[in-house]
Amino acid sequence: MPLLTNIERRALAKGQEIGQEIGKQKGAKETYQENILDLLQLRFNSVPKSIEDSLNNIDDLALLKQLHLSTISVKSLEEFEQLINSLS
Predict the structure, then answer these.
(1) Is 1 part of any domain?
(2) Is 24 part of any domain?
(3) What tens digit of pLDDT does each residue of 55-73 get?
(4) What single DSSP character describes residue 88?
(5) CA angle 62–67–72, rounded 5-degree value
(6) CB of 63 within 8 A of CB of 72?
(7) Residue-number span of the structural domain to which 61 is assigned
(8) CA 87 to CA 55: how far, in whole Å?
(9) What's the structural domain count of the chain?
(10) Long-range contacts for 36-44 (Cβ within 8 Å, ≥24 apart)?
(11) CA 17 to CA 14: how far, in whole Å?
(12) pTM for the complete prediction?
């Protein structure tokens, strides 16, 4: 393994740190999306592909968290779909 300068070591460490943060955010996004779909499936027995596609296009973790909490109180899939459209 070649020797690294201090600047290269710091750059490598910073790159690894950024990569880990991106990985955490991607994992959180996927977890929220899966949990929302699981709850909708449990409550309404099926989830239309349009809702699944809409959820998969949302990258904002705060929005996904809000939708996750709203999943508990919506009365229908149509209401949930309207909520997605109004928040996105």
Answers:
(1) no
(2) yes
(3) 999 999 999 999 999 999 9
(4) -
(5) 135
(6) no
(7) 6-87
(8) 11
(9) 1
(10) 36/64, 36/67, 36/68, 36/71, 39/68, 39/71, 39/72, 40/71, 40/77, 40/80, 43/71, 44/76, 44/77
(11) 5
(12) 0.81
Both tokens of residue 71?
Answer: 């999943």
Q: Give me the DSSP letters along 2-68.
A: ----HHHHHHHHHHHHHHHHHHHHHHHHHHHHHHHHHHHHHHHS---HHHHHHHHT---HHHHHHHH
Considering only CA atoms, which of 45, 65, 74 is closest in space to residue 82? 74
Place of tokens 């996004």: 29
Contact status, residue 61 vs residue 31, Cβ threshold 8 Å: no
| Secondary structure letter of residue 71 according to DSSP | T
Cβ neighbors of 28 (< 8 A, separation 6 or more) are: 61
The whole-angstrom separation of Cα 38 and Cα 71 is: 10
Q: Is 75 inside a domain boundary?
A: yes
Helix (H) or strand (E) holding 69: helix 61-70
Each residue's pLDDT tens digit, 2-52? 788 889 889 888 899 999 988 899 999 999 999 999 999 999 999 999 999
